Structures are given as structure tokens and as C-alpha cells.
Known about the structure:
It is built from eight helices and 27 strands. The chain has 417 residues and is α/β, with parallel strands linked by helices. The strands form eight sheets. Strands 15-12-16-20-19-17 form a six-stranded mixed sheet, sandwiched between helices. Helix 1 (4-13) crosses helix 7. It is elongated and about 95 Å long. The protein binds adenosine monophosphate and magnesium ion. Adenosine monophosphate is lined by residues 190, 192, 194-195, 207, 209-212, 255-257, 259, 261, 307-310, 379.
Amino acid sequence: MISVEEALEKVLSYVDVLEPEDEPLLNSLGRVLAEDVYSDIDIPPLDNSAMDGYAVQAESTEGASSTSPRILRIIGEVAAGYIATEEVTPGTAIRIMTGAPIPKGADAVVQFEDTDEEKRKAAKKPLTEIGILRQAVKGLNIRGAGEDISKGSMALKAGTVLRPQEIGVLASLGKDAVPVIRRPVVAVLATGDELVDIKEPLPPGKIYNSNTYSLAAQVSRYGGIPKILGIARDNIKALEDKIKQARAADLLITSAGVSVGEYDVVKDVLARLGEVTFWTVRMKPGKPLAFGVLRLGKRRIPHLGLPGNPVSSMIAFEQFARPAILKMLGRKDLTKPTVKARSEGRIDNKDRRRVFARVRVIKRDGQYFACLAGPQGSGILTSMTQANGLMIVPEDKPGIEVGEEVQVQMLDWNEEM
Length: 417
Ligand code: AMP
Ligand code: MG
């Protein structure tokens, strides 16, 4: 039996960052940028106005105040998206809108609020001239060309996880496709004679296959592409046939059939088609866990054989499959967010494994508290629906007492909780 850390290290040593692919910009949210992105253009492309107002020469406003306005002749108007044809000279102004390029000759923009435009409009005077009520300095309200991103500079670094703001930056550079790391295809295979597909009626003695669905959803949640292989029956031939369909995948995840029972043939098949790297991990739930590499045709495919109990398979997925998927996606931070909390329940750890107890973390007076999310049997999947975290009992501790400080791995990371 190996520790959770050793097991994770082994799993990660068998997966690598995948190749880049070009993805339409809108599909690249959450993906990892595969190359540095340089800008072919200045952003903004031209000096432009940060305000609605009047483009002027600062010198023409010298000494201006509300009691002693400087009167300038209006020679034109320019909106965002257009280039002014007139040139600003001493004593003249061009009415300008936010984002419009600064007209030739102008070196400042006086915002409407610092002019008498309102008064002139109220008096229904034609706008042929404008009173400037405040002295402007050179550069006032002008956004310089390239002040955000200058032509030829690096806008985003390879390895960046694309959030909405990075998508916006890429759009501002005119990129409609971006080089990102490919998403791993994760084959999901359920095993068990007792399993029935959710589209079928449920005969006596059988149960619905739920693991395929929770696991496929976990694959999607962490950025992988689930490939559902269905259900394999508990015999070597059936399992081998199904496993061979994982040939095109980057990772195979099976559930069940890894314990010590007579019908637990997953390890045997893994040994026949490849090699078993480890089996059983010092954790609870999730101890019977097999990992190895399958040789399918020319490919070598890592295979994570998760336990069958619905809670065990989900928790083992979080510990091993999630980091493997993130690594393949090019992500650097593979650890789950963890908070320090005070336990509101007792947990025993008689056989000294690392226990992941399902808890509901709440925040009270600025502190986190972890309450056990109902019965902790590894078949009780509804306890996962009550939980937002996994309280960790270290393997060297006999248990956790009420009031003790604990680490909780957050299943959902939400500061509001
Ligand atoms: P096993 O690891 O094969 O001994 O299975 C452990 C427990 O998990 C048994 O009670 C199985 O019926 C249950 N189980 C196995 N596979 C699934 C599945 N795909 N969906 C729901 N329960 C399952
Ligand atoms: Mg079974």
C-alpha cells in the first residue's frame, strides 16, 4: 500500500502536457495558452480622446476659468471611428467623442463639463464657438497610441490560463483563433455484472450505472473530453474488448472490479494488456485503486482503475484523475484549494489511512467550520450532494475530535459558501 503522495507522483509521471491546437477564441476559455502572443498592432492604434469634449491646443486655454472663459471657434466634430479632416490651430477647437482619434494640431481634450456648452445649448445659440472654463495642460484626456499594448511587444505569455480578461485582450489584438493545449480525451468505462444502463428498465438484483455519469461529469468539469465506453461485464474477455476501445484516448478511467473478489478482473486485464504500476493506496475511501499503463497498438495509455463504490470513485478521481487531466492541459497548479477549518464532528481513523470525510464547510464570524455531511458510507452518494469539501484526517492521526483544526479540500471553491 503506498501513500497518496507516492501514488499521485506515479500517476503524474505517466502523463505529459499535450500538443497545441488552434481553437476559436470563444472556445478557449479556461485553456492554457501554448505560445507567447505578440502584438502586430498598437493598442490603441492612435492617440485618442478619453472623454467627450473639445480637442484644443493647451496654449489656447491659458488662464481660462469659469469667470474668465477662453472662447474658441469650433471648426468641426469627430466621433469614434472617424478621422477629423480639419486641423486644430490656435484659437480653434474640434468637438470630439470618447475613443475618437485626436485631430491634427490638438494636444489636449477639455471635457464638456469644463466648457459652457450646456449653457449655450440652453440658450439655443448655434454652436459656432465654445467657452473653455478651465486651463488644460498638454496631454489632458489623451490616451496615447500603444499605451495598453505596443506593437511588437508580448501581450500574453505561454502557459497563461485564459480567463475572460485574456480572451478580451486576444480579441483586442484581432486574434480569432488561439494556440492552446489540446484537451485530453478521457475514456470512461464502468465494470460490473450488476450494472444497467440508465435508459433501461431495472431488473431485480441490478443497479443503475451511476459512476459513468459522475466520472464523465468530473472529466468535463476539469477540462477533459469524456469518451463513454459503456459497461463491461466482470470477465476478462468482455473487459479486454471494451478496454481496447480506449485506443484513441489519453487516459482510461475504469470503475469497480479492483478489489480482492473473484470477479475483480480489472487488475488482471491491466497486467495482461500492459503493466500494473501500483495497487491499493493508504486512503479512505478509495483504497483499492489500481494504476498502470496499457499497450494498445502502438500507444501506451495510462489506466486509472478506480474503486466501484460511487463515493470512493469520485474522491479517488479528485485525488488522481483531476491532477492528471490538469497536467495534460498544461496547467501548473494541480492542487485543490484547501481551507483551514474547525471540525464540528468526530472522525475515527483506526486503520491509519488518509481519510477524506465529506463535510459541509460554512463560514461564521470570518472562520470556517466543517460539519460532517451525513453518513460516511462509501456507497452513500447523496452525502456527496450535501458536501462542499473533503476534510482530511492525516494517516498518522487516530482521528479528529470536535473543535480540532483541520484542512479541508474544497470540492467547490466559493468564498461565499
Ligand atoms: P466493486 O469494486 O466491483 O466491488 O464494487 C463496489 C461497489 O460499487 C458495489 O456495491 C458495486 O455494485 C458498486 N458499483 C460498481 N460500479 C458501479 C457503478 N458504475 N455505478 C454504481 N455503483 C457501482
Ligand atoms: Mg464488482
